[in-house]
């Protein structure tokens, strides 16, 4: 997959085949062509996309997976190639994930890293916003044990929201975090931002051949995206920082407001264990998932995930 691309189609078009190449024809007649062999994953991210059987066959023969998303932008189905090479990659990933879950020590270290990064980044959000509470968050981050045995994540979350909601732009709209069916402008924006991050992570996990239901810290049998919920934890800071930056927080959360929020999410990040390289958000998520795949491939105890540690406006 390193030499191939993940291609996302986000507007109406018809996908077919011409002279062996995949043709993407928009409704205005404009078109582009791609070699199927250049694609590792094709993500169909619009309800008005149509695709021919011939195109699906050519993509499958070229070991290109096809992802279909639902109304919430989450993957709802994946068409996997059945060639020996593609099946081998998928089977290897699955066996590696199962082996990790059976190795409680390494699993505990991964969850420790994810929670530590989440708590540390929460402190960074408070500090960047000029709010109280950053020092305690940083101290809590240092206390996270393998598998978060002492439940630091819950303590940190309670402290974080108490401090975050004191921001002048946010305080007038409420003082409580609401996860489900929020109608107030702050929680509605937070939930939308989290959903966008979760979607991006889930797509990258599937594109890398991982089974997104096999989580490290999340194990809900009814949740097909436990692993995405694991890896969103250190990225939540981007949503919390972005929402607090918005100047239209008191406006209805319509199309324009959603676009403003998405622009605020599109920042540059520096990751741990990565020599201070800067990545755009989507690239950072790719690096994080690749580092997890590398951890799965290792037999020793070392765990070095590339997780967000700093971010900048573009």
Automatic annotation (TrEMBL):
Its cofactor is Mg(2+); Mn(2+). It is an enzyme of class 3 (hydrolase). GO terms for molecular function: DNA binding; DNA endonuclease activity; hydrolase activity; metal ion binding. The keyword Manganese applies. GO terms for biological process: defense response to virus; maintenance of CRISPR repeat elements. The keyword Manganese applies. Keywords: Antiviral defense, DNA-binding, Endonuclease, Hydrolase, Magnesium, Manganese, Metal-binding, Nuclease. InterPro entries: Cas1 (IPR050646), CRISPR-assoc_Cas1 (IPR002729), CRISPR-assoc_Cas1_C (IPR042206), CRISPR-assoc_Cas1_NMENI (IPR019855). Pfam families: Cas_Cas1. Its EC number is 3.1.-.-. Mn(2+) binds at residues 153, 218, 233. Belongs to the CRISPR-associated endonuclease Cas1 family. Homodimer, forms a heterotetramer with a Cas2 homodimer. CRISPR (clustered regularly interspaced short palindromic repeat), is an adaptive immune system that provides protection against mobile genetic elements (viruses, transposable elements and conjugative plasmids). CRISPR clusters contain spacers, sequences complementary to antecedent mobile elements, and target invading nucleic acids. CRISPR clusters are transcribed and processed into CRISPR RNA (crRNA). Acts as a dsDNA endonuclease. Involved in the integration of spacer DNA into the CRISPR cassette. This is CRISPR-associated endonuclease Cas1. It comes from Ephemeroptericola cinctiostellae. The gene is cas1_2.
């Amino acid at each position: 997959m390193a030499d191939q691309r993940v291609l996302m189609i986000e507007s109406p078009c018809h996908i077919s085949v011409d002279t062996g190449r995949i043709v993407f024809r928009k409704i205005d007649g404009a078109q582009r062509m791609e070699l199927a062999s250049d694609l590792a994953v094709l993500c169909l991210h619009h309800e008005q996309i149509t695709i021919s059987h011939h195109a699906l066959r050519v993509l499958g023969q070229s070991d290109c997976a096809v992802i279909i998303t639902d109304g919430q932008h989450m993957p709802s189905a994946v068409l996997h190639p059945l060639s020996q090479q593609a099946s081998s990659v998928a089977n290897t990933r699955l066996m590696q994930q199962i082996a990790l879950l059976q190795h409680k020590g390494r699993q505990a270290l991964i969850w420790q890293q994810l929670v530590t990064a989440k708590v540390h980044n929460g402190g960074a959000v408070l500090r960047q916003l000029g709010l109280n509470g950053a020092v305690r968050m940083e101290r809590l981050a240092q206390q996270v044990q393998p598998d978060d045995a002492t439940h630091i994540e819950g303590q940190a979350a309670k402290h974080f929201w108490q401090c975050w909601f004191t921001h002048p732009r946010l305080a007038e709209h409420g003082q409580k975090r609401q996860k489900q069916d929020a109608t107030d402008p702050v929680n509605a924006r937070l939930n939308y931002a989290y959903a966008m991050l979760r979607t991006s992570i889930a797509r990258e996990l599937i594109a890398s051949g991982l089974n997104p239901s096999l989580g490290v810290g999340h194990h809900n049998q009814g949740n097909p995206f436990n692993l995405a919920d694991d890896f969103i934890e250190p990225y939540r800071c981007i949503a919390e920082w972005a929402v607090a930056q918005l100047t239209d927080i008191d406006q209805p959360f319509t199309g324009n407001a959603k676009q403003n929020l998405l622009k605020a999410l599109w920042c540059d990040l520096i990751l741990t264990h990565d020599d201070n390289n800067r990545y755009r958000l989507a690239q950072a998520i790719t690096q994080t998932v690749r580092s997890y795949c590398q951890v799965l491939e290792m037999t020793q105890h070392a765990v070095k995930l590339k997780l967000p540690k700093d971010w900048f406006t573009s």
